[in-house]
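Translate structure to sequence.
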């Protein structure tokens, strides 16, 4: 009697080959994904800076040109998203003077984050953008 068993499933060699291929693909894709995250966080921070500058100009016009908002006032007018506050430290100038004739908003990457080598971003009341725009 010739009884042949049909086996179903995968052999150990086939599983090892698939795992190796997945590992190679993951090692190629991960750096690209990291770069994508850095660019996305930078774009979110740029958007935040533009929004904050717009609010500053609205504040200036609403006060008949008597100065820009200080740090506490601007923080109450603009909310910082998680992409910005997790990866960047935001600094507003002026910090306390409500009658300042200029402002600068700077986003500095936090150390030990994926943004640490990205460079700072800054915008001034004149519209001048400096840093990694």
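Result:
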């Amino acid at each position: 009697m010739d009884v042949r068993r049909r086996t179903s499933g995968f052999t150990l060699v086939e599983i090892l080959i698939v795992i190796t291929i997945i590992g190679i693909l993951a090692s190629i894709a991960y750096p690209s994904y990291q770069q994508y995250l850095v660019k996305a966080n930078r774009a979110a921070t740029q958007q935040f800076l533009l929004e904050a500058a717009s609010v500053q100009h609205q504040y200036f016009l609403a006060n008949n040109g008597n100065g820009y908002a200080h740090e506490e006032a601007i923080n109450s007018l603009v909310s910082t998203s998680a992409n910005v506050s997790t990866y960047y430290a935001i600094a507003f100038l002026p910090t306390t003077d409500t009658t300042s004739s200029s402002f600068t908003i700077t986003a500095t990457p936090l150390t030990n984050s994926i943004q640490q080598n990205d460079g700072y971003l800054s915008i001034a009341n004149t519209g001048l953008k400096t840093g990694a725009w």
